Structure formats: C-alpha cells, structure tokens
Amino acid sequence: MSILRCHLKVIIAGMLAVLVSAFSVTALAHDSPDLPEPVLPAHICARLVPRQVYSSGDDTQRLQSAIDNCPQGEALQLLAGRFSSGPLTMKSGVTLWISHGALLAANTDPRIYDENGHCGTLDHKGNGCRPFILFKNTDGGGIVGEGVIDGQGGKLMKGEDESWWQLARRAQTEGAAQNVPRLIEIDDGSNIIFHGITLRNSPGFHVTLKNARGATFWGVRIDTPANARNTDGIDPISSQNILIAHSFIRTGDDNVAIKAGAGGPTRHVLLVDNHFYWGHGMSIGSETVGGVSNIRVRGLTLDGTTSGLRIKSDISRGGIVSDIRYEDVCMRGNRRPLDFDTRYDVHASGSNIPVYRDISLSHIAGETGQLVLRGYDAAHTLHFALDGVYFSNAARWLIESAQLLIGPGGVSPVPPGEASLQRSSAPADCAKNWIPFPVTDAP
C-alpha cells in the first residue's frame, strides 16, 4: 500500500523480551516485588481540635501558623471534627496528618483564592486562582491520615449563584475557560508523600504535580461525581519518579493523566495495584510535547471509565511517547477500552506531531467497545506489542497507521486482515479483582 493505513505484522517468536521489560531500579527505587509502604511520621509538633464556637468560622490563620511553626520532619495532626480553611502553603519537611473522622473543607469564597481578579469567573486563560493546598519548592513532608479533604466544588461559591462545577460547565457551553482552584498543587517539590487520605469534590484538578522530583501516593482515595467537569485525579506534569499504588479513584475527568509540557519530560512513573471507577481512564496526554517515557502500569482495574488505557495528543501539543508498559489490566463497562489516538482534537493546528512507540500490552482483559489504535500518518506510525489481549467478540478495532507485534498469548478479537492465532494463554480471570469503591466516613 502506498499509504500505510493499517499495517499489521505478526511475530510469534521472541516477543516476551519485548513485551516485558524491567523497570530500572536506578531510575525509580520503588520498583521492586515488595514495594515499601510509607510510614506515618514519628513526631507530632501539634494536635489541633475543631473549634466549637468562634466568630469567623475559619481556621486558615491557625492552620497556617501551625504549619509554619512545625519543625521539619514532624507532623501537624488534625483531630476528629470539621475544619474550614482558605488557601494553605506547606513547608518543607512538614506533614499534614488528617486523622480518622477529621474533615478539612475548602472555603468557597473565590476572592481568597484570587490571583489576578478573575477567580470565580470565565475568561480565555483559566489561571486566575491559587490552589487550596500548595507545595512550592518543598522537599519532604506531605499529607497523610484516614481523614478527608473536601474541595466543596458542588457548593455555591460565596456571594454567587452557582458552584465551581456549574461555572466549569458554563465555560464549556460558552467556549471559555473557568477560573477555579485546584485542590492540591506541587510546584518544583520533591519527596512528597500522600498516604491513606481521601480527596473529594475538588473545584478543579485534585492533585497536579509540576516539575516534581519524587512523589508517592499510597492508599489514596479520590471521590468526585462523574459529571464534575475537569476534575482530574492525579496529573504528573514534567515530573519524574512518581509512584501511585493501592489507590482508588473516581472523578469527572481523567483518573490519572500523565503529561509533559514545555517545562520538560515526564518519566519514571509507576502505577501498581490501583482501582479506577467512573472517569476518563488511565491517560497519557494530551500535552506530550516535552516527551513521556518509562511508564509502568500493572495490576489496574478500570470499572466503568469511558476510556480505559489511553494516550491522547494532537499536532498542537504532541511529542514522543515511548517505553510504556501495561500489564495485568482488567476492564469492564468502557466505551473505548483501548484509546490510543494522535488526533485528540481534530481541529488542532501546529507542527508537533505525536509519536507513540515501544508500547506494550500484556495480560489485558476487557469486554466490548471500540479498540482504537490511530497513528498520525505513514511516516508517523504507532508501534505496539500485544500479548494476551482479550476482549469480547463484540469489540471492534479501529486501526490506522499502526504497526503491531503480536506475542504468543494472542489477541482477541483478531485485528482486521490477520489470521487467527493459536493462543498459548487463557484470558485473565478478572472476577476476583472487582471491588466496590471504599467510601470514607466524614463529618
């Protein structure tokens, strides 16, 4: 064919070395058979209890003062009850410990998050609010505990007749950008730990990491309605050495979105034994111009996400996405269980052509839906290795400008134009992997 619309090549022998590669221990020390669970801080600098009667109804000043005066290596502990606060800035080496039964609620007044006079309004940039909790140039510390941080995205903004989420939905209909605060933002931080905490109802993204160097999310729960627009779960951007393990995420946008903008590449990201529910799936992109590489996803369930495993970009923001491994993934109730597309925005313009290569899927099981592998053109094809990838016969392939290597475990349904293979392994038994979302009690 003069134009490579759908080029499929089957290689039976010698695929296991391609399909399964070790994650460099020097690149990410977390990658071992027995990942070490983070431990809670040994020293507590202060314990705060909720105020029962106070004039302002706001704990911002005393929380920020306690953080600022907490020595590095120690934790500020919030005991059971409700705390209400405006924006907080974390200090290097200090951990915020939110105990079981404690709730930290974000104030709904747009004015206290304001950066440029636009917070709580629409414009064409959407960068008018500071986050609720900010880690900036910090090393160490984090947020732990079995309590809850609630962004109150569904509550009316103070002094307004709509909520943060309603503002975001209105922005969509009016072709504008909403100015809403993110729940947690890490800027140029390193060695941050999140353990056991529940994050819910963020006005915007729940956790954004920009130029982070080392962060662990262990046993984290992110819980926000499916119709809450642009409420991504965890977004590493131009960051490296990130671990997301044993966590549960349901939200109104990408459950996880790994991105790389002009700030640099994202690499060495490991996801192990996580469960995703409603949301847009396990995503890479759409910003990939900085390059995304060395990503490992293993032991993941995607239960009702719209897309399952997804890489999305376009010529306005594309870059090289390479050395990506997906292993032991179970999916059900997905419209696009596989969604690897270089034309995320069909109206995009630019010269940053997305390139996806050295990507492997092994021991993947799902149901019906569309299986999309769409490269950009004959000169920029997708390079995928598939081994033991099984969907129902009702699933349908959409393959363009792609080169596939199929391993001994086979692929079902068989991609178009290829003969059936005698597979050497059975589809994964996913029944034992489905578990309900573990809801956290909170005051």
Brief characterization of the structure:
This protein is mostly beta strands and 443 residues long.
Key descriptive features of the protein:
443 residues; mainly beta; Pectate Lyase C-like; 20-stranded parallel β-sheet; 3 helices; 33 strands; 5% helix; globular; disordered N terminus
Describe the structure.
It contains 3 helices and 33 strands. The protein is mainly beta. The protein has one domain (16-433): Single-stranded right-handed beta-helix, Pectin lyase-like (Pectate Lyase C-like, 3 Solenoid), CATH 2.160.20. Belongs to the glycosyl hydrolase 28 family.
Total of DSSP H or I helical runs spanning 4+ residues: 3
Number of domains: 1
CATH structural fold name = Pectate Lyase C-like
Low-pLDDT runs: 1-32
Beta-strand percentage? 35-45%
The class by helix and strand makeup works out as: mainly beta
Instruction: Supply the CATH class.
Output: Mainly Beta
Largest sheet: 20 strands, parallel
Ends: how far apart?
Answer: 64 Å
Label the overall shape: globular
Query: What number is the mean pLDDT?
Result: 91
- How many β strands by DSSP? 33
What is this structure's SSE topology?
Blueprint: H1 16-19, E1 44-48, H2 60-68, E2 75-78, E3 81-85, E4 88-89, E5 95-98, E6 102-106, E7 122-123, E8 133-136, E9 142-144, E10 148-150, H3 164-174, E11 177-178, E12 184-187, E13 190-195, E14 198-200, E15 207-210, E16 213-218, E17 221-223, E18 234-237, E19 240-245, E20 248-250, E21 256-258, E22 266-276, E23 282-284, E24 292-303, E25 307-312, E26 320-332, E27 336-341, E28 355-365, E29 370-374, E30 382-390, E31 396-400, E32 402-406, E33 411-412
Parallel strand pairs: 1-2, 2-5, 3-6, 4-8, 5-9, 6-10, 8-12, 9-13, 10-14, 12-15, 13-16, 14-17, 15-18, 16-19, 17-20, 19-22, 20-22, 21-23, 22-24, 23-25, 24-26, 25-27, 26-28, 27-29, 28-30, 29-31, 30-32, 30-33
Antiparallel strand pairs: 7-11
GO molecular function: polygalacturonase activity
Pfam families: Glyco_hydro_28
Family: Belongs to the glycosyl hydrolase 28 family.
